[in-house]
Design goal:
The chain is mainly alpha-helical. Among the domains are: 75 residues, no CATH class; 249 residues, 3-Layer(aba) Sandwich (Rossmann fold), CATH 3.40.50. The protein is 58% helix and 5% strand. It is built from 23 helices and 5 strands. A 5-stranded parallel β-sheet has the order 2-3-1-4-5. Helix 6 packs antiparallel against helix 7 and helix 15 packs antiparallel against helix 16.
Length: 479
C-alpha cells in the first residue's frame, strides 16, 4: 500500500528530529547521511537544508554549506525571504561572493523590500563594490526603510569620500542624528556624519558630533574596567597543556593581532597577496574554543587542547583550494596567545602597532558592531583597555616561546615593500605577490579603509583633532 501524504509528512519530521538527536550525540556522519536522504525526498525543505548546512559549517566545509543553501534558493526561485536567509548564512561563512550572487539573483526576479535592499547593500560593500552598495542603500531609503531600526545612513556614509558639505548625504545624516527616535540608530548616523565632516576637513564639527554619538552608545552599552583588569589577571595566571601531535603538516596559522584600529586588516590583506596564502578574515574560532576551554576548566587537559586545535584547523583550512599559510586577522586574539602557543607551536604571531594617539582616535571614530569593543566609546575606557593590552602582551612576550613580530603601521604605509619583505621573512613566505584581483571579502570595521590604496594621510591624524579632543594627549607611544 502506498504511504499517505500525512504519514509521509510525519515520517519526514520524525527523521528530522532523529537527525537532530544524532548531531547532539556527536554522530555526525550518521546525521549527515540521514539529512541527505531526507533532502533527496524533499530538496526544498528549509529546516533540513539549514540543519545540514550548519553541520557542514561546524566542520569547516563552508563551500559545501553555501553551495547547499544556494541550490535551495534556486529551487525556491530566489524568493526574498529564502535569499535573505541564505545570504546571511553565506556571510557568516565568509562567503560574501556567494551572498552577493544570491542577493543579485533575487533582485533580478522580485520586487525587493527595503530591508532586503539594505542587506544587498551590506554584501556589495563587503565585496568592495561601493558604487553598487550605495545604489542599494539609496533604493532602500526610497522604499521607506525604518531608519530607527536600520543603520543604513551610517553605512551609506562609508560608500564614498565626500568632496564638500553640499552633498545631499549631509542633510540626511544631520536630520536623523538630530531627530531620530532610537538612540543607537541616531549614534550610527552620527558616526557617519562625523566621517563625512572629516572627509571635507571640518574636524571641529566631526569632533562635536563624535562626542554626542559616543555618549549615546556609552549610555546603552557600558563597559567595566574592573572586569577587564580581572580578565587580564586571569589570563596571566593560566597554565595551558600542550596539545599532543599539535603540528599539522603544511599548515601554518598566522595570527595578525593588536589593538583594534592598529592596522591588522591592512597588514593581513597585504600578506594575503602572496601565493599559497588564505586570509580568513576575523575568524572568531580561537575566541570560541578559548571560551569553551576556560568555562569548562579544560586548559590543562592536553586532549582537550588537541581537540580544540583540530577544530581550529578545520575552520581555518576549510574546503577550498589548499594553502600553506592561513591568516587570522581577529585583532582580539591577543587575549589568548597562550592557547595559540599550546595548540600550534609552528604558528606565527604578528603584533600590529600604531601611534597610540592615532589608534585611540580611530577607535573613538568607529561604530563597532561587537560588544567586545564596548570600551571604544569613552576615552577613559580606551586608556584602561590599552593598559590591559600592554600588560597582557608583555606577559606573553616574557613567558611564551612563540615568536612575535612587531609590525608598525607607520612603517608599512611609508615603505610597503620593505615592511612586507621583513614580515614575510619572519613568517617564512617567499617575498613575492600574486595579482591584485585576489581581495578577500571584508566585514570588519576597516571595510572602507582596507579597500583603498595604501595611503599615509592617517599617520599623525590625531594632530588635526588635538585642539578639539584634548583627551588624546594622554596617549603616548606605539600601541
Amino acid at each position: 500500500m502506498a504511504e499517505s501524504p500525512l504519514m509521509s509528512a510525519v515520517s519526514f519530521e520524525a527523521g528530522l528530529a532523529y537527525a537532530r538527536r544524532l548531531w547532539q550525540q556527536d554522530e555526525v556522519a550518521a546525521c549527515e547521511a540521514l539529512l541527505r536522504d531526507l533532502l533527496a525526498r524533499d530538496p526544498t525543505h528549509e529546516d533540513a537544508t539549514f540543519l545540514l548546512a550548519q553541520l557542514l559549517q561546524t566542520q569547516g566545509r563552508l563551500d559545501a554549506a553555501c553551495a547547499l543553501v544556494c541550490q535551495w534558493c534556486r529551487l525556491r526561485d530566489f524568493a526574498l525571504q529564502p535569499s535573505a536567509r541564505a545570504a546571511e548564512f553565506s556571510r557568516q561563512c565568509q562567503r560574501q561572493t556567494r551572498a552577493d550572487e544570491l542577493c543579485e539573483a533575487a533582485l533580478a526576479r522580485h520586487r525587493p523590500a527595503a530591508d532586503f535592499l539594505v542587506l544587498a547593500g551590506h554584501v556589495a560593500r563587503e565585496v568592495g563594490d561601493f558604487a553598487r552598495a550605495r545604489a542599494r542603500y539609496l533604493a532602500a531609503l526610497d522604499a521607506g526603510v525604518d531608519l530607527n531600526s536600520s543603520f543604513v545612513l551610517g553605512a551609506l556614509a562609508n560608500t564614498l569620500r565626500y568632496g564638500d558639505a553640499s552633498h545631499p548625504d549631509f542633510t540626511r545624516l544631520r536630520a536623523h542624528f538630530r531627530d531620530g527616535t532610537s538612540p543607537r540608530a541616531r549614534a550610527a548616523s552620527g558616526f557617519g556624519l562625523a566621517k563625512a565632516y572629516d572627509d571635507v576637513g571640518d574636524r571641529e564639527a566631526a569632533a562635536r558630533v563624535l562626542r554626542e554619538a559616543n555618549a549615546l552608545v556609552h549610555a546603552v552599552q557600558p563597559w567595566s574596567s574592573a572586569d577587564w583588569r580581572q580578565f587580564v589577571a586571569q589570563r596571566k595566571h593560566e597554565q595551558v597543556g600542550r596539545a599532543r601531535n599539535a603540528e599539522f603538516a603544511d599548515f601554518v596559522p598566522v595570527f595578525v593581532l593588536g589593538l583594534p584600529r592598529s592596522g591588522t586588516t591592512l597588514t593581513a590583506t597585504q600578506l594575503a597577496r602572496q601565493a599559497r596564502t588564505r586570509d580568513r578574515g576575523e575568524l572568531r574560532t580561537l575566541r570560541f574554543v578559548a571560551q569553551r576551554l576556560i568555562e569548562g576548566d579544560h586548559l590543562r587537559d592536553a586532549d582537550a587542547i588537541a581537540e580544540a586545535a583540530a577544530l581550529y584547523h578545520s575552520h581555518a583550512r576549510q574546503d577550498d583550494a589548499p594553502a600553506t599559510w592561513y591568516i587570522d586577522q581577529d585583532p582580539l586574539n591577543f587575549r589568548y596567545v597562550h592557547l595559540i602557543a599550546a595548540m600550534f607551536p609552528q604558528a606565527r604571531v604578528v603584533l600590529c602597532q600604531r601611534d597610540r594617539r592615532d589608534t585611540a582616535l580611530s577607535q573613538w571614530c568607529q561604530d563597532f558592531a561587537h560588544a567586545d569593543c564596548a570600551f571604544a566609546y569613552d576615552f577613559a575606557d580606551i586608556a584602561a583597555y590599552a593598559s590591559g593590552f600592554d600588560d597582557l602582551v608583555e606577559h606573553w612576550r616574557q613567558t611564551l616561546p612563540l615568536p612575535i613580530h612587531v609590525a608598525n603601521y607607520e612603517d608599512l604605509v611609508a615603505d610597503p615593500p620593505r615592511a612586507l619583505t621583513a614580515l614575510r621573512a619572519f613568517i617564512g613566505m617567499p617575498d613575492e605577490e600574486v595579482g591584485v584581483g585576489t581581495a578577500t571579502p571584508i566585514n570588519s570595521s576597516s571595510i572602507w579603509q582596507a579597500r583603498q590604496p595604501i595611503y599615509t594621510r592617517s599617520v599623525g591624524r590625531w594632530r588635526a583633532y588635538a585642539p578639539f579632543i584634548p583627551e588624546l594627549s594622554q596617549f603616548k607611544g606605539p600601541g
